[in-house]
Amino acid sequence: MSGPRLALLTALTMLAFAANSILNRLAVGAELIDPMGFALVRVVSGALMLVLLAVAQHRALPMLARGRGVGALSLSLYLIGFSIAYVHLDAGIGALILFGLVQITMFAGAVIGAERVTPLRWTGAGVAFAGLAWLLWPAGSLQVPWVGAGAMALAGVGWGLYSLAGRKSADPLSATAANFLWAVPICAVVPMLLPAQIDGVPMTGAGIALAVLSGAVTSGLGYALWYHVLPRLQAAVAGLVQLSVPVIAVLGGAVLLAEPASLRTLGAGAVVLGGIALGLWPRQRRIGSSGS
Prior knowledge:
single chain, mainly alpha
């Protein structure tokens, strides 16, 4: 695959990830569909799309593979927390919290797994955490709702655990299809256990259409495209390019949803992203020096 084509496909993947935040906020924030309904329609649509892709490529679905329970539960935690959070959060702020917690969770996984953590990576994690604290600390006109922030933090932990669980997957596409299939009944049952006020919003055609678009296209096809380009990217590059997603979501939320992009939001986002980039820098330098 040529360099320009790889760059284009990678950019399209990041746009798909950011679009999930915008689509969810557009549907749930405007009360076109309730958050649990959005999560369920999204996971069903994503499962159908991924299963079709796996079947078309003659791949088996490892429904009972080792670690499938962790993958399905963490994916469900991400989907449910993600949807609930966007009742309260703007698209850009939600993406900042999500990807900040994803990186912190994966950083913690590296520590627990006894991976070597350099001082610069410790520093980067601390800077990223400080940026999140700045973003969430009540001040002035920007008051981040703790319900939304908490739900998105859980979503970030869920996606981080899901990513950690999938690092050893021999066939990421088939594994993701199996996880989505298992997540369908989980996302169907969880609403029965949540407070009644979480629901109560009627499903509209527009809300369902946005959820299907998020599930089948920006989640299903987006994840498949990511798996296609991921083997061709250096590990550090793959991590760094994902840091563009919150920035895209902030800009998309400002343009498409008329959400305010305050200096504090932009500043906190820059600190979070800068800290994560700082933490990833040693790996990038080692890869570059190895000539790979």
